[in-house]
UniProtKB/TrEMBL annotation:
<keyword id="KW-0436">Ligase</keyword>
<dbReference type="InterPro" id="IPR017510">
    <property type="entry name" value="RtcB2"/>
</dbReference>
<dbReference type="GO" id="GO:0016874">
    <property type="term" value="F:ligase activity"/>
</dbReference>
<keyword id="KW-0547">Nucleotide-binding</keyword>
<keyword id="KW-0692">RNA repair</keyword>
<dbReference type="InterPro" id="IPR036025">
    <property type="entry name" value="RtcB-like_sf"/>
</dbReference>
<keyword id="KW-0479">Metal-binding</keyword>
<dbReference type="InterPro" id="IPR001233">
    <property type="entry name" value="RtcB"/>
</dbReference>
<dbReference type="Pfam" id="PF01139">
    <property type="entry name" value="RtcB"/>
</dbReference>
<keyword id="KW-0342">GTP-binding</keyword>
<keyword id="KW-0464">Manganese</keyword>
<protein>
    <recommendedName>
        <fullName>3'-phosphate/5'-hydroxy nucleic acid ligase</fullName>
        <ecNumber>6.5.1.8</ecNumber>
    </recommendedName>
</protein>
DNA sequence: ATGTAC
């Protein structure tokens, strides 16, 4: 497997084993980003893949200046894991799918007290709270497939007999509007630390983090409500955000874009919808800029997925996976874009980080039912 | 990624 912490240049580190597929374009973007003014260190995670100008699956540490474009539009996007009291043996995907129904519409009036409590004052964006959105977002009921650390897992009130719920979503239109306003004013030059516009951006950013966390909580509660189940939040971790940090004795700004923090407790790193997810205990390390992968990482561009797969699979075939799980995705483009084939095998991603000494795996989670969208488009 | 832009 070789060395999993690769030093690509003085300031660029890549966390990946030799056999982890990383697209050349993503490495190029990593190097380009490392040359921004004030940029001190960048670290690519094993799920690194190309983004719009900047790579996804990476952490960036700068001093004196911060770069909203490096966090992207989905500020606060992240993963939440919940326990449920649903019996893993008596909850087949068909039954869950039927009971869940359609959760694409805005939350109704009965939810509005909780909505205003969790996410007050997001003018124009309140109606998206409690909805998953598109792209790689999902909510997934899972079985605990294997426990590697029984003590740690029991301490979280997780039980193999009960399903868990993993929610991946973000700040919907709110974060995008914050980035859009910022780019309109400042382009890609970034913000000088302590300037009025920087203070203003950080306040908006923090609002988007709160909104995104509230959104994940509302999605989970809404699903539990539909399923007639109870549950508790186990963890909620953002992977698109900027935080103040000290790296190599310097104070600055740690940007994460599709990079899970490794210095804030337990995390879940999901594979594709036809693959396992892993509950893990991070081992904080400056070498990875205190970050981990946020998923398996795309192997194929969204635009090429349908052409590559349409002859092999129908949408109906893609709604069932090799692990026996069901996928609710009535958007014919999205179901191809999110096909398991479009992603790297998650085991190679987890192994890279384990080998690099960045995490310990606690449990392996197996998908039962993934909800993407019932509405569809086109 | 998007209460999308075309």
């Amino acid at each position: 497997m070789g060395n999993c912490i690769q030093q690509l240049s003085e300031s660029v580190t890549l966390i990946a084993s030799d056999d982890t597929w990383i697209e050349g374009n993503a490495i190029q973007q990593l190097h380009t980003t490392s040359k921004l003014a004030g940029m001190r260190r960048v670290a690519g995670m094993p799920d690194l893949h190309p983004g719009r100008g900047y790579p996804v699956g990476a952490a960036f540490f700068s001093t004196g200046r911060l770069y909203p474009a490096l966090i992207g539009g989905d500020i606060g996007c992240g993963m939440a894991l919940w326990t449920t009291d649903l019996d893993a043996r008596k909850s087949p995907a068909e039954k869950l799918e039927k009971r869940l129904g359609n959760i694409d519409a805005p939350l109704d009036d009965a939810w509005q007290t909780l909505v205003s409590e969790l996410a007050p004052a997001n003018v124009g964006f309140q109606q998206a709270l409690g909805t998953i959105g598109g792209g790689n977002h999902f909510a997934e009921l899972q079985r605990i497939d294997h426990i590697y650390d029984p003590q740690a897992v029991a301490a979280l009130q997780l039980d193999m007999k009960q399903l868990v719920l993993l929610v991946h979503s973000g700040s919907r239109g709110l974060g995008g509007s914050i980035l859009e306003q910022h780019i309109h004013r400042h382009g890609h030059a970034g913000l000088v630390q302590d300037s009025a516009d920087c203070v203003d951006y950080l306040a908006q950013h923090d609002g988007a983090l709160q909104y995104a966390e509230a959104n994940r909580q509302l999605i989970a509660r809404r699903m539990l409500d539909r399923l007639g189940a109870n549950g508790q939040q186990v963890l909620d971790v953002h992977h698109n955000l900027v935080t103040p940090a000290a790296i190599q004795g310097e104070n600055g700004w740690l940007h994460r874009k599709g990079a899970t923090p490794s210095d804030t407790g337990l995390v879940v790193i999901p594979g594709s919808r036809g693959d396992y997810s892993y509950l893990a205990a991070p081992i904080p390390s400056e070498a990875s800029l205190f970050s981990l992968a946020h998923g398996a990482g795309r192997k194929w561009m969204r635009s090429e997925c349908k052409d590559r797969l349409v002859k092999r699979y129908s949408p109906a075939q893609l709604s069932r996976t090799k692990l026996g799980s069901h996928v609710v995705c009535q958007d014919k483009h999205l179901i191809y874009e999110e096909a398991p084939e479009a992603y790297k095998p998650v085991d190679s991603i987890i192994a890279s980080m384990e080998q690099a000494g960045l995490l310990t795996v606690l449990a392996k989670l197996r998908p039962v039912l993934t909800y993407k969208t019932r509405g569809g488009c086109c």
